[in-house]
Write a structure and sequence with these properties.
heterodimer, A: mainly beta, six-stranded antiparallel beta sheet, B: mainly alpha, 2 domains, 0% strand
Chain lengths: 164, 82
């Protein structure tokens, strides 16, 4: 598969909520969104299989989000990959190191989504995930970090994973 | 004066209310904290003035907590009237 081609798409309805500190499913004008609090770190988790079309170029994760009320400030997002494959005991978590995106300035209109991007190079940053293997993507709004300055909920609309 | 933690709790509550009804707010979290700290400071600085504005004959019959509740209820009523 060529660089830049979409591999996977996740939407809020596919979230596998953690047992605590989870983003909350909400509707905005009939759009399902995941609300991430502005005071407490909250998480969303998605499971998939790395498509066989992936050719080793690394993954670029893009999150599209709007804000419930804020029209200024930044939101800080963090990402993890957990390779499940045939090695991870699913009775426990095995997420690799966390990777931050640069703080993303919100739209001047709260309902207009903006896109934040984080590149995860092939190898350790992808938890050595290989094609055809199941994995999980964990996403956090790092609301407790001082670089996260936007007030109110961030609303995750969709996630794209493409080959870098 | 409220502590930093108390101010942050009020800020989060304020932001949560605005988020629930999706009302736009052009202020960051640090800016909201600065505003709330200023409000808290103003309340502290004007507490004596507020106390003196009450009818003195009965003012002493109210505890400090009761007076603050009265102030909150009047502010709430004014807010509802907006």
């Amino acid at each position: 598969m060529a660089s830049g081609d979409t591999l996977l798409i996740f939407t809020p309805l596919g979230n596998e909520s953690p047992s605590s500190a989870y983003a909350t499913l909400d509707l905005r004008n009939s759009h399902p969104v995941l609300d991430f609090d502005d005071a407490t770190n909250e998480y969303a988790v998605f499971t998939s299989i790395l498509p066989r079309a992936y050719s080793g170029g690394g993954l670029t994760v893009s999150v599209f989000f709007a804000m419930s009320s804020a029209v200024s400030g930044d939101v800080l997002w963090t990402f993890w990959i957990e390779r499940i494959g045939e090695i991870q005991d699913i009775d426990s978590d095995g997420f690799a190191t966390e990777y931050y995106a640069d703080p993303k300035t919100v739209s001047g209109t709260s309902g207009i989504p903006v896109k934040v991007v984080r590149v995860l190079t092939d190898g350790a940053r992808m938890d050595h995930l290989a094609v055809g293997e199941p994995f999980r993507l964990k996403i956090r709004r790092s609301a407790e970090n001082e670089d996260d300055t936007a007030s109110g909920d961030a609303e995750l609309l969709a996630v794209e994973i493409k080959e870098t | 004066m409220l502590t930093d933690e108390q101010i942050e709790k009020v800020r989060a509550e304020f932001a949560g209310e605005l988020s629930k009804v999706r009302t736009s707010l052009s202020a960051t979290k640090p800016q909201c904290i600065a505003v709330l700290a200023a409000v808290d400071s103003w309340v502290g600085a004007n507490a004596a003035s507020f106390n003196q504005a009450l009818p003195q004959a009965v003012a002493n019959n109210f505890s400090a907590r009761q007076k603050l509740k009265l102030l909150r209820m009047i502010i709430n009523a004014r807010l509802e009237a907006l």
